[in-house]
């Protein structure tokens, strides 16, 4: 590059005589690029190596001398580099054009030299006083031209001329910087000056320079990219008549390269022979990367780690202590034993030195066994169940925190004849009536247990139930094919008359067509039933009654009747009706929903929920019990418990599912009876194993919370007789007390 | 020292000072007592130190608690160091009760009283009251049907008895399942062959459920009836000249009764109304009792697990103690502010009527449901004397339970009863006890029994 320029310069000088104006305009531009490279070191010394303030020494002041020197040098090289010159020439022109001086320096004056007569530029003299020297200007930084990064880690930024430390001026933190930029509208056009250690506003020219650099333009503001063409060698009078060099044209200009041809032929031959397939897909085409998530994970278990070998013991040492060495009989025994029976598969040996230990004689055998092991017995990873058994037990509150619940037998009322089959507690919780298979019906106080009145009925008593109304007092007893309504003694006058008007009204309501006969006895005697409902003959013993909560409807279930044996009796109309024409299976139990007009019917296997108002089946609960024995509906009406003769107790959440929410198998024999406490969160189940179990059953209004069922207490006290245990349990309303009737002929009260 | 010479010292000894409030006072002196000694040894020590002519058994109270085992055990239990001097109070020991008489009866006896001197009166579930002589216990001296339904309690009104040489008349209160309580008179003539007679004077009509208990103030002027219908009736003992409430029996029954009356069997029973009704309980009221020495303040307990204090005159409930899970069955006023109450959780609890705390001051645990309580009253030597406090045994209490055992408790020893009186075999319930002086009358499922308790 330099060479070409110099050659240009030489040509120009030749023409300069003729056209001095042209030289003036072109010369500085061509040389201006060249010279600073030579003098850069000198510049550095004076200028502290700062790049941005690159003071350009005016090349034109001494351009001529330099150019002449350069041309002298170049003369020798010229021949050698001739070839390249030709190629590079065009580039050089463009480069030289692009470089120009920024021109922030003292303006030169052009005068005619006295010596050469040529015009030359003269700069104003630099006066050698302090003011002229930039280093003596009123510079706030007095540390000299020392690279500031030397002091980056120091509290000072250098030493002044007196050798004292110059401390780093305090710089604000980021917040101060931000505030200062907010307050100062000129902040965006200032830059941090390292020497001054402060922000200095930039001049307009500097800003313009920055803008150009940012925009990727030529930094020189005066640069015109569209200068008119200067016709150097073309045009009139500038035609080249002589070649620049006399050298003959090299051969390569018109001959194809032999080496290139060889290389190409090699490839061509390879293609022909098929060594190179031109359109062969690359081996790694598209296979480099793949998505590991798209593939299903391998179903193989991860490779099993090898079992950890046990650490060697003393006896395995090459030089074990004497007590580890086997005695003679032990050795003999070991040798005689089968390899499988040996406690250890080696005999301890003692060698006085390690170098005396022979080669391992069973090496092959052991390898073989190991391979056999791997082949025949693939390793199984046995997962050790490291589970605390306590943690598997659900967290239940302790029974003592769930008091009150019945926990002891307070009293016992004995029936003399046969099993006490049924028991019922009056709605005010004061009286209990219990009936046995001998036809004895006893009315007694809950808390004293004294039989206040006894009735003797014909035949077995199947079931007994108090009317839930509190303004009247009577109970209904089921005997063979009959429902009999009795009134307890010592009633207040008002209650007694109301009861009588219900059971034996003076004016009978119009008779209804029904096969069931209602007869009232108008004698006020308490010894006989006030009202008798005679079920159809052959219906057998009523085994369950269910009162509607308002005490007007009574549902009865009889043991053997072709159509299920379910009757609903309405006291106010003195009318009985069979709600079901046909029912699959034998009805075991019925129950009224506590708040809705729904009716639960339990057959042997299923519990069906009917809507009586709409006369349709709502739900069928499948407890999975072979023979349902008992059922009760939670006072909220949303939960049902069902017990079976196969010992299962199923809790149904009606909102949840037709399948049991929980199945409790706590009894060892058939469940006989279940009941929810009307007010306390309790339920009890009784069984043929002679025990009564009390559960805490809290039901939450929040639908998301599951019912909490906690077994609380097992009450034992009834004797098992003929395989029958506790036949019925009933809660005392308003108190956490339980009344139970057992096959041993006794009724018991369990108090808290 | 005297003690060391009387018994061979075994093991470590402990300094003890004996104090007493009885007539047997030891000189104030520090004794070194072996720690292995029990009540018997200490009693012997006191007897010998005083050189009493006949041995008097003593019980020993260490820091207000009756000594049950050895001193050593007591000290270990209380964590008392060996340097502390123990102050031991001794009282005359309660002798084991002895059964004086027993009688089987046909029906359950729900009430018993020994307020009639020389006699017992029992109230039965068949509606009869029976009067027994101490001497002829096996046969009832007098039987009268007071109620048509089971009687639940029986009470003799104090200060309403007239006595002359040949005839003594007592006023008797009974409560029954027939929704009434009745005031009757009982005329006894112990010294003459004239037969004993009873006469029902008035029936108290308020309740709509069986009356569970009846009680009377100590001056005999005010009666409280508590009933299953949550009410407490307040009555005076005046016999009105005519019915205060009309008979609401239907015509047929009235006719029948009139017919009976014509035949001369039935005397006129005046129907009384209460002077006030105390209404605050929410469940059955089991018992009510006047505070000692007052006829204006009363306390009551009920199945709603509350102990309520009443201003009887104004009919206001002044204070309520709610003891959850304790439906109460019986009540006995210990002092003005403390009441014993028996609950179905098998405890007899002492409540401070001034505090609202539900926690009792102390609890006496029972193996079965305690059904009745009795505090010692003075012997019914003179019926006109309403003397309270049996003298010296104000810390004692008798409770009857459903297991057929009557227990004698000392408040200072809450763990075990001082003495047990097994009336009947297990299962026969004790329903009522009364304690006057040395006599404890027990009635229940199995009949009536009499025990002698205390000093002899």
From TrEMBL, chain A:
Localization annotation: Nucleus, Nucleolus; Nucleus, Nucleoplasm
Region (Disordered): 1-141, 298-343
Annotated Pro residues bias: 300-310
Main subcellular localisation: nucleus
BP GO terms, sorted: maturation of 5.8S rRNA from tricistronic rRNA transcript (SSU-rRNA, 5.8S rRNA, LSU-rRNA); maturation of LSU-rRNA from tricistronic rRNA transcript (SSU-rRNA, 5.8S rRNA, LSU-rRNA)
WD repeat ranges, renumbered to this chain: 664-705
Ranges for domain BOP1 N-terminal: 151-406
UniProt-listed SMART domains: BOP1NT, WD40
GO cellular component terms attached to this protein's record: nucleoplasm; PeBoW complex; preribosome, large subunit precursor
Xref: Pfam families: BOP1NT, WD40
InterPro entries in the record: BOP1/Erb1, BOP1_N_dom, WD40/YVTN_repeat-like_dom_sf, WD40_repeat_dom_sf, WD40_rpt
Protein origin, superkingdom: Eukaryota
GO molecular function, one term: ribonucleoprotein complex binding
UniProt keyword list: Nucleus, Repeat, Ribosome biogenesis, rRNA processing, WD repeat
Sequence ranges of Acidic residues compositional bias: 36-56, 63-95, 126-138
Function: Component of the NOP7 complex, which is required for maturation of the 25S and 5.8S ribosomal RNAs and formation of the 60S ribosome.
Assigned protein family: Belongs to the WD repeat BOP1/ERB1 family.
PANTHER family (alphabetical): RIBOSOME BIOGENESIS PROTEIN BOP1 (PTHR17605:SF0), RIBOSOME BIOGENESIS PROTEIN BOP1 BLOCK OF PROLIFERATION 1 PROTEIN (PTHR17605)
Subunit: Component of the NOP7 complex, composed of ERB1, NOP7 and YTM1. Within the NOP7 complex ERB1 appears to interact directly with NOP7 and YTM1. The NOP7 complex also associates with the 66S pre-ribosome.
Record-given protein name: Ribosome biogenesis protein ERB1
Organism (species): Coniophora puteana (strain RWD-64-598)
Automatic annotation (TrEMBL), chain B:
Domain of life: Eukaryota
Protein name per its UniProtKB record: WD40 repeat-like protein
Keyword Cell wall biogenesis/degradation (UniProt): no
WD repeat residues: 204-238, 278-320, 393-419
UniProtKB keywords: Nucleus, Repeat, WD repeat
UniProt lineage: Eukaryota, Fungi, Dikarya, Basidiomycota, Agaricomycotina
Any Pfam family the entry gives: NLE
Region (Disordered): 239-267
Primary localisation category: nucleus
NLE domain boundaries: 16-74
GO cellular component, as recorded: nucleolus
Subcellular location: Nucleus, Nucleolus
């Amino acid at each position: 590059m330099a060479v070409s320029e110099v050659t240009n310069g030489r040509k120009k000088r030749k023409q300069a005589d003729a056209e001095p104006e042209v030289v003036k305009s072109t010369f500085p531009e061509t040389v201006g690029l060249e010279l600073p490279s030579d003098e850069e070191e000198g510049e550095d010394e004076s200028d502290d190596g700062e790049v941005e303030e690159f003071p350009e020494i005016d090349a034109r002041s001494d351009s001529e001398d330099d150019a002449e020197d350069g041309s002298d040098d170049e003369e020798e090289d010229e021949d050698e580099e001739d070839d390249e010159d030709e190629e590079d020439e065009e580039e050089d022109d463009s480069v030289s054009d692009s470089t120009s001086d920024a021109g922030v320096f003292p303006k030169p004056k052009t005068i005619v030299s006295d010596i050469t007569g040529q015009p030359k530029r003269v700069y104003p003299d630099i006066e050698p006083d302090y003011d002229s020297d930039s280093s003596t200007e009123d510079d706030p930084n007095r540390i000299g031209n020392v690279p500031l990064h030397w002091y980056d880690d120091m509290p000072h930024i250098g030493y002044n001329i007196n050798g004292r430390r110059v401390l780093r001026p305090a710089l604000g933190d980021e917040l101060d910087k931000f505030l200062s930029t907010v307050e100062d509208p000129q902040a965006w056009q200032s830059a941090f000056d390292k020497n001054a250690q402060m922000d200095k506003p930039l001049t307009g020219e500097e800003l313009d320079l920055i803008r150009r650099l940012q925009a990727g333009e030529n930094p020189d503001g005066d640069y015109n990219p569209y200068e008119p063409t200067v016709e150097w060698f073309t045009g009139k009078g500038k035609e080249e008549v002589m070649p620049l060099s006399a050298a003959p044209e090299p051969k390569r200009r018109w001959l194809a390269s032999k080496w290139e041809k060889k290389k190409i032929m090699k490839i061509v031959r390879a293609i022909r022979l098929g060594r190179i397939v031109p359109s062969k897909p690359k081996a790694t085409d598209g296979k480099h990367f793949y998505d590991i998530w798209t593939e299903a994970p391998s179903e193989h278990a991860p490779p099993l780690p090898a079992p950890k070998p046990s650490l060697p013991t003393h006896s395995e040492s090459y030089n074990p202590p004497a007590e580890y060495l086997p005695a003679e009989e032990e050795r003999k025994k070991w040798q005689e034993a089968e390899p499988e029976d040996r406690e250890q598969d080696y005999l301890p040996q003692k060698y006085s030195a390690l170098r005396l230990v022979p080669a391992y004689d069973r090496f092959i055998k052991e390898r073989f066994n190991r391979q056999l092991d791997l082949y025949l017995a693939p390793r199984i990873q046995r997962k050790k169940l490291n589970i605390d058994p306590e943690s598997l037990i659900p967290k239940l509150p302790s029974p003592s925190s769930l008091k009150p619940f019945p926990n002891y037998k307070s009293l016992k009322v004995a029936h003399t004849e046969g099993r006490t089959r049924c028991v019922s507690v009056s709605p005010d919780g004061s009286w209990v009536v219990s009936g046995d298979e001998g036809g004895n019906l006893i009315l007694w106080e809950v808390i004293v247990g004294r039989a206040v009145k006894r009735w003797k009925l014909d035949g077995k008593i199947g079931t007994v139930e108090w009317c839930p109304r509190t303004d009247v007092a009577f109970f209904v007893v089921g005997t063979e094919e009959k429902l009999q309504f009795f009134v307890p003694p010592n009633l207040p006058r008002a209650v007694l008359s109301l009861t009588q008007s219900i059971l034996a009204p003076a004016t009978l309501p119009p008779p209804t067509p029904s096969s069931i006969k209602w007869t009232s006895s108008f004698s006020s005697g308490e010894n006989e039933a006030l009202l008798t409902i005679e079920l159809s003959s052959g219906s057998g013993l009523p085994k369950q009654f269910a009162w509607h909560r308002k005490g007007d409807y009574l549902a009865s279930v009889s043991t053997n009747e072709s159509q299920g044996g379910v009757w609903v009796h309405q006291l106010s109309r003195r009318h009985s009706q069979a709600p079901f024409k046909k029912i699959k299976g034998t009805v075991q139990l019925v129950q009224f929903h506590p708040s809705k007009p729904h009716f639960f019917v339990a057959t042997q296997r299923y519990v069906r929920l009917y809507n009586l108002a709409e006369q349709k089946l709502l739900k069928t609960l499948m407890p999975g019990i072979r023979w349902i024995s008992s059922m009760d509906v939670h006072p909220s009406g949303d939960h049902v418990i069902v017990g079976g003769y196969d010992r299962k107790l199923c809790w149904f959440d009606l909102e949840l599912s037709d399948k049991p929410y929980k199945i409790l198998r706590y009894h060892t024999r058939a469940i006989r009876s279940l009941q929810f406490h009307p007010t306390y969160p309790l339920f009890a189940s009784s069984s043929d194993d002679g025990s009564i179990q009390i559960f805490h059953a809290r039901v939450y209004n929040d639908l998301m919370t599951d019912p909490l069922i906690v077994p609380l207490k097992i009450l034992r006290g009834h004797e098992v007789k003929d395989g029958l245990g506790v036949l019925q349990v009933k809660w005392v309303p308003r108190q956490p007390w339980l009344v139970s009737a057992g096959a041993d002929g006794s009724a018991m009260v369990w108090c808290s | 020292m005297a003690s060391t010479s009387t018994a061979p010292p075994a093991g470590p000894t402990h300094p003890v000072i004996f104090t007493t409030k009885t007539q047997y006072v030891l000189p104030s002196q520090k004794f070194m007592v072996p720690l292995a000694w029990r009540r018997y040894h200490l009693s012997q020590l006191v007897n010998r130190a005083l050189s009493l002519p006949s041995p008097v058994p003593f019980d020993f109270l260490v820091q207000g608690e009756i000594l049950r085992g050895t001193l050593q055990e007591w000290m270990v239990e209380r964590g008392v160091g060996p340097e502390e001097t123990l102050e031991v109070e001794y009282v005359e020991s309660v002798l084991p009760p002895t059964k004086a008489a027993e009688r089987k009866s046909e029906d359950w006896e729900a009430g018993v009283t020994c307020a009639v001197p020389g006699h017992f009166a029992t109230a039965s579930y068949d509606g009869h009251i029976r009067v027994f002589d101490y001497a002829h216990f096996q046969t009832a001296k007098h039987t009268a049907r007071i109620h048509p339904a089971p009687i639940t309690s029986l009470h003799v009104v104090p200060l309403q008895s007239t006595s002359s040489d040949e005839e003594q008349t007592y006023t008797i209160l009974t409560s029954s399942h027939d929704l009434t309580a009745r005031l009757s008179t009982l005329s006894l003539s112990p010294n003459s062959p004239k037969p004993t007679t009873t006469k029902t004077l008035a029936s108290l009509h308020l309740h709509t459920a069986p009356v569970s208990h009846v009680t009377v103030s100590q001056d005999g002027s005010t009666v409280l009836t508590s009933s299953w219908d949550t009410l407490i009736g307040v009555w005076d003992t005046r016999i009105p000249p005519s019915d205060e409430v009309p008979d609401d029996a239907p015509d047929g029954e009235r006719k029948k009764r009139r017919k009976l009356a014509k035949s001369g069997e039935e005397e006129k029973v005046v129907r009384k109304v209460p002077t006030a009704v105390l209404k605050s309980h929410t469940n059955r009221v089991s018992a009510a009792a006047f505070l000692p020495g007052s006829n204006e303040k009363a306390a009551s307990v009920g199945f709603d697990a509350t102990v309520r204090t009443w201003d009887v005159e104004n009919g206001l409930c002044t204070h309520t103690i709610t003891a959850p899970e304790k439906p109460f069955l019986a009540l006995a006023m210990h002092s003005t502010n403390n009441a014993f109450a028996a609950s179905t959780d098998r405890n007899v609890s002492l409540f401070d009527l001034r505090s609202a705390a539900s926690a009792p001051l102390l609890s006496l645990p029972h193996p079965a449901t305690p059904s009745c309580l009795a505090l010692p009253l003075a012997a019914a030597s003179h019926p006109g004397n309403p003397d309270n406090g049996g003298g010296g045994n104000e810390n004692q209490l008798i409770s009857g339970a459903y297991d057929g055992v009557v227990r004698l408790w000392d408040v200072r020893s809450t763990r075990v009863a001082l003495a047990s009186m097994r009336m009947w075999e297990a299962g026969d319930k004790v329903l009522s006890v009364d304690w006057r002086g040395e006599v404890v009358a027990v009635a229940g499922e199995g009949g009536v029994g009499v025990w002698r308790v205390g000093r002899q």
